[in-house]
Amino acid sequence: MNSLFAFLHHLAAFTLVAALAIEFVLIRDAPSVGNARRLLIADAVFGMSAGAVLLIGLLRVLYFEKGVDYYLNSIPFIAKASLFAAVGLLSIYPTVEFLSWRKAVRQGAAPTVSERKLGTLRTIIHLELAGVALLILCAALMAKGVGMRG
User: Given pLDDT bands bounded at 50, 70 and 90, which one contains residue 4?
Assistant: First the structure.
C-alpha cells in the first residue's frame, strides 16, 4: 500500500509541475481566446493536482510511511510543507485572474489584460516555479534523512 500511495503522490506532483509549466509558457503573450481557455484548463489541473498532492501526502504522513513524529523532526519536511503552502498562497492571484476571464472566453473574446497585470502574473508564476524547484530539493534531502532533529 505504501508503494501505491507513493506512486499516486508522485503522479500528482508531476501533474502539478506540468500544469504550472504550461501556465508559464501560455502567459508569455497577451492571452488569445485559445490561450485563455488553455490557461483556465491548466490552472484547474494545477489546483486539482495540488489538492491530490496535499491529501495523499497527509495520508502518507499519517498512515503509510514513517509517522508524524518522524516528519515533524525533519527540517527538510517542514521546509517542503512551508514551500507547498507558499506556492498555494501565491497561486490564488493567478487563479482569481484566470477565472475572471471565463465570461469573455465563453463569448469567444480574448480577455482584456493590462501589460502590468500580465507582468504580475508572469512574476507570480515564476515564483511558484522557483518554490516548486526548492520543494523538490527539500524532498530529495528529506528522502536521504538530511536535517533530522533530535
Answer: very high
Asked, for residue 148, whether it belongs to a domain, the answer is no
Beta-carbon count within 10 A of 40 CB: 18
Alpha helices of 1-148 — where are they, by DSSP H? Answer: 2-26, 33-59, 68-72, 75-90, 92-100, 102-106, 115-143
CB atoms within 10 A of CB 39: 23
- The pLDDT value recorded for residue 67 is 85
Would 149 be classed as within a structural domain?
A: no
Number of Cβ within 10 Å of residue 71's Cβ equals 19
If one counts the domains in the chain, the total is 1
Q: Does position 150 have pLDDT exceeding 80, yes or no?
A: no
Q: CB–CB of 148/74 below 8 Å?
A: yes
At residue 143, the pLDDT reads 85
